[in-house]
Amino acid sequence: MMPRFCHALKSFLLALALLSSFQMFAQKEETVIGDRGLGFSGLWGGYRHQLTQFGDKTSYVNGGFFGFEFGKALLVGWGNYSLIDQFKWDGIQNQQFDMRWRPFLLQYGIKNHKPFHPQVGFEIGRGKVDLGEISDRILVVQPSAGLEINIFRWFHLGLDGGYRFVSDSSLPGLSDADLSGWYGQASLKFGYSFGSYHEKKSEKKPKTYED
């Protein structure tokens, strides 16, 4: 796993350097929802550590994510998560249980220029459940809401919570409800947003007086 992670990290840093050079030639996009626009504005990646529930078990999930930032607010990317503390599921012949999934992710920050700002997220993707020697494909959907803290310009800390909805489970003795559950997570987010934050200011209309 470490060689693949190092390769991915090198690719991330190379892409960040190339996009930083291209950004100098990019023109600012203006839209009806604000002067800062929704154009490409940064590149981010990092780690997520998740405390979650499977049935009556409290477990630890670890993973990483990578995404492109638009309008200094919207992150569009991908994630890769897996269960770290594998356990034996009670009541099903004591079989070893494992689960992993790779979702497409959307995350939106509100007033990201503030040191502390709220954020909401949504993830959806296919995954795999292992129970002993039997495997099954599943669909995972994870909405979330929380707070992000700007520690440095290149490092943000996210604290989120949400619910994991699992469907398409067909393993005997394991229902969708067994694989679904609440979760809380901490995100270590590394990257860079290009340029300065611009927020659209309302235009003051001249006062009119009636005779």
Describe what you observe in this structure.
With about 210 residues, the protein is mainly beta. The chain has a single domain, classed as Porin, CATH 2.40.160.20. About 10% of the residues lie in helices and about 55% in strands. It contains two helices and nine strands. The protein has helices spanning about 1-25, 175-180; strands at about 40-55, 55-70, 75-85, 85-90, 95-110, 115-130, 135-150, 155-165, 180-195. The chain has an eight-stranded antiparallel beta barrel with strand order 1-2-3-5-6-7-8-9. Strand 2 and strand 3 (about 75-85) form a beta hairpin. The longest helix is centred in the first third of the chain and has 22 residues, at about 1-25. The radius of gyration is 21 Å and the shape is elongated. The termini are far apart.
* Estimated radius of gyration: 21 Å
CATH-defined topology? Porin
Counting structural domains, the number is 1
Based on the structure given, which CATH architecture is correct? Answer: Beta Barrel
Strand content: over 45%
CATH domain class name: Mainly Beta
> What does the largest sheet look like?
8 strands, antiparallel, barrel
Mean pLDDT: 80
